[in-house]
């Protein structure tokens, strides 16, 4: 198998291919450069002389030849339009296909040239360039075994080990290379990764060297029994009682103490196997045990697979303040097997779907349309949610700005969880109610009605009887203090246009809470 780089114009395929090839001591092949050599002139000139159809036929021939004989001694960069060919797409199945993803504005800045000098025949003006990118994006994503959302050579170099491990992975396994200011890590998604009793499907994919770093599993009592044996070789396991009521310092102490008794050292790592409660707690314990050891997140609920396992927020609750104690600690890797959702109780699944809904409101576009259609949720939707969350975190790891949009629905949601003592509503259920409040505060009556209907269709609560406005306001005020002076409301202008740091009058907030309880 060769590493084959695909992606839009300006993504840096030629540069990254050359850099990776030199790192590996293998050859870099660039289909555009080879075509130019074959034509004896630029691709733009060939377009002029022979037209696009003829150019695509020559490109298909050359690329298929490269892919048919390509092997581990090569890193191949493909021209942006070559994957339009069905034959090329079939030939890619025998290789590790890596998408160098890039946003349209950055791509345009990189490829734009003074009028009349353009070397790229399809980079004529920004509007048609953006249209072309939008048309091709889905095609690229569908073909990619791995996605590098920040496609620098440095990121590609860091991802090399994981890219190679994909060769032996179960068919359909995909990887996204997550970036943040404090570190990069692989997110590996695939059906059946946790299917084998001995963890065999994970062999080779584990993000840390098993020979030198021992894994200690932290799970809850439900999940440990179901999937505790599916992770391959572990040095020890600790199970806490399940549920939000146990995301506490008492549970954290149990984990720290257990790690100490089992002899875990700074060279070892924690494996967080479970939902958001386990992920947050185990991540916190990893961040603090002996001043910090790595954590591999293995999320088993929908909430965790689309949201909580990524981005490095870890912590525990205080009795009167949710997520009040914690640290940022990015995972060393995240392993997602959507098949484990089959054992998730229906109510937990529905609750997790609220984070999907929230993510779709933030992302807008295709993800919103799909989620708003109310259909069943597939692996592609999980993947799209992961990509959305990773993009937000990459832009603002520490919640200084853009990341706050992920709190959509959470200010009121967290207050509901707190005033009901973490016992009446699941996290997602409370966030669903919080979304309704946020949409009321946003003045989005129609969208609120649509979201209300979507929640009700999944059996999720759309009313919260007996909420005390005073208790809710006090809980929200504590949340505000946590976030500093700014008013922490995230409001929605439209799906895909979500704004943070919005001011909200107390009287409006009271009305939005009263509407929920009414
Ligand atoms: N860190 C973040 O960025 C972030 C983001 C969103 C939510 N969160 C946190 O996530 C938590 C909620 O997470 P959650 O909804 O996953 O709850 P959870 O972890 O309590 O899991 C819900 C229930 O499902 C069970 N379960 C888990 N996986 C299962 C499976 N595959 N089959 C059968 N049962 C299974 C658990 O034992 C538990 O009883 C909250 O504490 C919230 O604050 C954190």
Q: What is the overall shape?
A: globular
What class, by secondary structure content? alpha/beta
CATH topology of the largest domain: Rossmann fold
- Total domain count: 3
- Tell me the Rg in angstroms: 24 Å
CATH hierarchy, class of the largest domain:
Alpha Beta
Hetero ligands: nicotinamide-adenine-dinucleotide
Summed up, the helix count is: 19
Going by CATH, the homologous superfamily of the largest domain would be P-loop containing nucleotide triphosphate hydrolases
**Secondary-structure arrangement, i.e. CATH architecture of the largest domain:** 3-Layer(aba) Sandwich
Count the E strands: 16
Strand order in the largest sheet: 2-3-1-4-5-6-7-14-11-10-8-9
Question: Helix and strand layout, with pairings?
Answer:
Layout: E1 3-6, H1 13-24, E2 27-30, H2 31-39, H3 43-69, E3 74-77, H4 86-92, E4 96-100, H5 104-111, H6 126-143, E5 146-148, H7 153-165, E6 174-178, E7 185-189, E8 215-220, H8 221-227, E9 236-240, H9 249-261, E10 269-274, H10 276-288, E11 295-299, H11 302-308, E12 313-318, E13 321-328, E14 333-336, H12 346-363, H13 365-372, H14 379-395, H15 410-419, H16 427-441, H17 445-457, H18 469-483, E15 489-494, E16 497-502, H19 506-517
Parallel strand pairs: 1-3, 1-4, 2-3, 4-5, 5-6, 7-14, 8-9, 8-10, 10-11, 11-14
Antiparallel strand pairs: 6-7, 12-13, 15-16
Helix pairs in contact: 1-7, 2-3, 3-4, 9-10, 11-12, 11-14, 12-13, 12-14, 12-16, 15-16, 15-18, 16-17, 16-19
